[in-house]
Amino acid sequence: MTGPDSEFDLIRRYFAEPARTSPDVLLGIGDDAALLGVQAGQELVVTVDTLVEGTHYFPDHPPASLGHKALAANLSDLAAMGADPLGAVLSLTLPSVDHDWLAAFSRGFLALAEQASVPLVGGDTTRGPGAISVTVLGQVPAGQALRRAGARPGDRLVVSGALGGAAGGLAFEQQRREQGQPTDEQSPDCARLFWPNARLALGRGLRNRARAVIDISDGLLADLGHLCAASGCGARVDWSQVPVDPLLEGQPEEVVRDWALAGGEDYELLFALPPTEPLELLSLSVRTSLTVIGEFTSGSEIEVVDAEGARLDVARRGHDHFAG
Amino acid sequence: MTGPDSEFDLIRRYFAEPARTSPDVLLGIGDDAALLGVQAGQELVVTVDTLVEGTHYFPDHPPASLGHKALAANLSDLAAMGADPLGAVLSLTLPSVDHDWLAAFSRGFLALAEQASVPLVGGDTTRGPGAISVTVLGQVPAGQALRRAGARPGDRLVVSGALGGAAGGLAFEQQRREQGQPTDEQSPDCARLFWPNARLALGRGLRNRARAVIDISDGLLADLGHLCAASGCGARVDWSQVPVDPLLEGQPEEVVRDWALAGGEDYELLFALPPTEPLELLSLSVRTSLTVIGEFTSGSEIEVVDAEGARLDVARRGHDHFAG
């Protein structure tokens, strides 16, 4: 993380303050690397996520929201491991130095960093096509990390919160753009799209309870596919039980289904709960709405059925930045 | 690190194998995050570095060298902290999926990863303008990390190896390009440019010996500036003592001086050695050539002098990716 003065100063100027407040941070931004304390009996968790301008966000995406989202996506991966945040490093590639943009971006990033107790401990800025790469470190008691592998046939398939809100928000935002209306990052219909939440408390609550966990970043069916592949099992999803974001009310059925089953970026957790584990107690203890939406099955197929058990055809299962 | 199938498969296909070999890696590529064991009594070190196509490397930079360099730059930051590598995560942004390129890039990256015992534990691939972001984690015995702060007036200023080889290699490579000759990544005059080494063993050897350490990535004078700023002191560099790469023989004096004092990417270590610490023993124990090139002074000035102590004017002190 060596950098010439003005690069170095960009990180220091906009991002350096809060790292000093955490007792885990022994050395924050400004040296060759950061130093963190890891408590005895903990394992280290590390995850990276990169957002590229034009691929993951509009060039004029509100910068405060972008700072928030770049961190939230990574925190969601920590949540899916049942981990507590330890620190983050940020690599920012910018076409030019725009101080208003940087001030807003860092405000969004740091507000979430403070709220989630994840100090920014290091960073790097470079000139180039816009991209934001965040690496987040966390810790989890030894042996208690929540993996994708572990679901067994007969386990309940559970999801937190409601789905489809991010995909819906994106569609509404695109509509507004086509009509020449300005982006409003505070618009309630874009809350999930612009200000996603990572389910950190839920992730912690699932330790020693859930058999397998993943976060929904690519869409329910795509991420369920990853979880089933890692666990070596299949799953049946009861569409009539899937909790749908209230934002989607009044939309045509096939649109709602597409947004809730294949839309990405909801950042809810999807997990396998063994039959012996009481759902209601868990839901109360983590103060999060949890819904059983199906079960894990033997085999490898993922099927979606209606309330009568009849199979539904689902056209789109998720998005892929390298596809088509 | 959730990703749709084909992104996920790119990382798994080209990078997944070696992570399984390290006892520190509890869970490698393929889950929401990686899991690492950190030994008791160790502090965690984390650093990130991003290379952007067009800014840090030519679009046709030989991909095996690029994989090597992206990791080496980060390992050099670990070396400058006196840390042992623990693991790396890679975020790769590519304009398109070029399997030959990926095979060569991963070969270069993984060969160095194996040599330096730094397993790749996680990754992320995205479509977009070319960029390579690597985060490296390391560990260092508690309290022994080598920082930039700590140099005191009267300490000797010491550098490892020789300087200017990377800048010289880049100039020769640019000359060849202007003459329409193909890039030869095995050309001896480009060894430092294409296949830099991180001084990990030296970094370890400097624990409890050096008072302050930095790696030379931006150029001797620029990085010395960072070290002096952090330590709150100045420095005097005796140009006649600076070890210059043999590659630069026969070049005009002002060119040699520019490449050795202001050229970046040599990845040698620059450090403050207290007067009580014998240099020769240290040099033998780390099997690295070490040279005293000056001393730390009070004040904040960094001056370059000749063998007679007369001050030399130095035009360029380092490069800045955001400068003009």
What's this, in brief?
2 copies of one chain form a homodimer. Chain A is an alpha+beta fold. Helices cover 31% and strands 24% of the residues of chain A.
What report would you give on this structure?
Two copies of one chain form a homodimer. In chain A, the strands form three sheets. Chain A has a six-stranded mixed sheet, with helices on both faces. A four-stranded mixed sheet of chain A has the order 3-6-4-5. In chain A, 31% of the residues lie in helices and 24% in strands. With 324 residues, chain A is of the alpha+beta class. Chains A and B meet through helix 1, strand 2, strand 3, helix 2 and strand 4 of A and helix 1, strand 2, strand 3, helix 2 and strand 4 of B.
Summary tags:
homodimer; 324 residues; alpha+beta; four-stranded mixed sheet; 9 helices; disordered C terminus
Total count of strands of chain A: 12
Multimeric state: homodimer
Share of residues in helices of chain A: 25-40%
Annotation field: number of helices of chain A: 9
| Euclidean distance between termini CA atoms of chain A | 36 Å
Show the helix and strand layout.
The structure is a homodimer.
Chain A: H1 5-15, E1 25-27, E2 34-37, E3 42-52, H2 63-81, E4 84-94, H3 99-115, E5 120-127, E6 131-141, E7 156-160, H4 165-178, H5 191-194, H6 200-206, E8 212-215, H7 220-231, E9 234-238, H8 253-262, E10 269-273, H9 279-286, E11 290-297, E12 302-305
Helix pairs in contact in A: 2-3, 2-6
